[in-house]
Amino acid sequence: MTSTERAAEGAGRARQGEVFRAGVLGRRPRVPVGVDALERRARRAMSARAWAYVAGGAGAGLTMAANRAAFARWSIVPRMLAGSTSRDLGVELFGRRLPTPLLLSPIGAAALAHPDSDRLAASAAAALGIPFVISSQGCCPMEDVAAAMGTGPRWYQLYWSTDDQLVDSMIARAEAIGCDALVVTVDTTMLGWRPEDLTLGSLPFSQGIGIAQYTSDPRFQQVVAERLAAPREPTAPVRVTPAAVRSLLSLTRAHPGRFADNLRSPVPRAAVEAFLDIYSNPGLGWDDLATLRRRTRLPVLVKGILHPDDARLAVEAGASGVVVSNHGGRQVDGAVASLDALPAVREAVGPDTVVVLDSGVRTGADVLKALALGADAVGIGRPWVYGLAVAGREGVREVLANLVAELELTMGLSGVSSVRSAGPELLRQG
To answer: Sign of torsion, CA 103 108 111 116?
Structure first.
């Protein structure tokens, strides 16, 4: 079948045909198609520390549950005999035409799931034309991620450090690698209370996992050098335990350079200490955000918005868009579900501001519901990490291909010819 024939056939039927043709030969998808089966397989593939960090949430997990319950409360009311043989999934964001309304949300410390996490996931996204949002807490320098993507679309997610020169350095690097947008995450100025990680005493950053954007940054390297040069109070000797040795090996392995050199150097440990001291800024305010208008030429989205007043303040501060997100339920336990917050945020910012929805999205039907309630695009988080853990790059590709296929089929079966035409009249609540 030619590419033209496949396009006419639609992404959903094409994906079904790919899977079923392989099934005739006895081959099943490497990645489970169902949501629950995918999570079970990923859990088996991941270590206890990795699963706690990726799948865990804040407190009792009420916000994670609320995210899924919010999607369940909205029902699609299909319309029949639309008389259309094809669906247009394309959207335009910040001057770039994209084939689908999906993007890969930023996930920190994804090397817990696969050692080459960022490059593999970015490459899979690029192959499908889906934007990859490079995480500040990534495990690979953004320049290497961009190289793995070729001309694929990429955005950069910024955690606002207490060091303003570091903020500017990160922004300049994001511009240099051709990012289409800057996503400023504002809901993680402090880590939420995450029982799964706390029970294991596990914070990946303290072992050098997820700080590659920092150790590759010239300003951060200067901060570490200044830290090592400054007089320091004597510290008590560290008790040598097997866990301490494993941590030392981890941060030595994660740091740029030769392992043997790093093992003898004080720099890897100093880098982790410097990162933990400066990576987040609890004092961040709207006035800080407004300075981005003169600090970058990139359009700015503010991620972590749930209240309509905050959405208005973000636009007043110069943002071109907002990401309606509760961080996948990882920050505030008992917070409002992202989908429940979406309609009011859309109303607050009007039709011209880009609105992205993430948190709790698991299926193509979820994507369509978010679009109908006002999102221009939808971020996928945990599912791509699960696919990565199960089957690397191919796992990410299959997860994304399945989401696109289900979205296209759901649109066709519901009488929706394009994502732009999906509105609240498609849905019924309750």
So the answer is: positive
- 301 forms beta bridges with 183, 321
Please, are residues 168 and 292 in contact by the beta-carbon 8 Å criterion?
no
Which run of H or of E encompasses 103? strand 102-104
Residue in 211, 192, 184, 183 with CA at minimum distance from that of residue 278: 211
Q: What is the pLDDT of residues 21-77, one digit of tens each?
A: 999 999 999 999 999 999 999 999 999 999 999 999 999 999 999 999 999 999 999
Distances (CA, A) of 429 to 174, 307, 332: 41, 21, 25
Q: Which one from 114, 255, 307, 327 is the annotated catalytic residue?
A: 327
Q: Round to whole Å and give the CA distance between 407 and 371.
A: 11
Tell me which residue of 182, 161, 134 sits closest to 295, measured CA to CA: 182
Q: DSSP class of residue 105?
A: -
Query: Residue 143 carries which side chain, given as an amino acid letter?
Result: E
Task: Please name the amino acid found at residue 174.
Answer: A
Report which residue type is found at 210: G
pLDDT band with cut points at 50, 70 and 90 for residue 223? very high
The residue type of 338 is: S
Is 307 catalytic? The answer is no
C-alpha span between 288 and 201 (Å, rounded): 33
Pairing state between β 154-158 and 182-185: parallel
User: What pTM value is reported for the model?
Assistant: 0.93
List 110's β-bridge partners, or say none. Answer: none
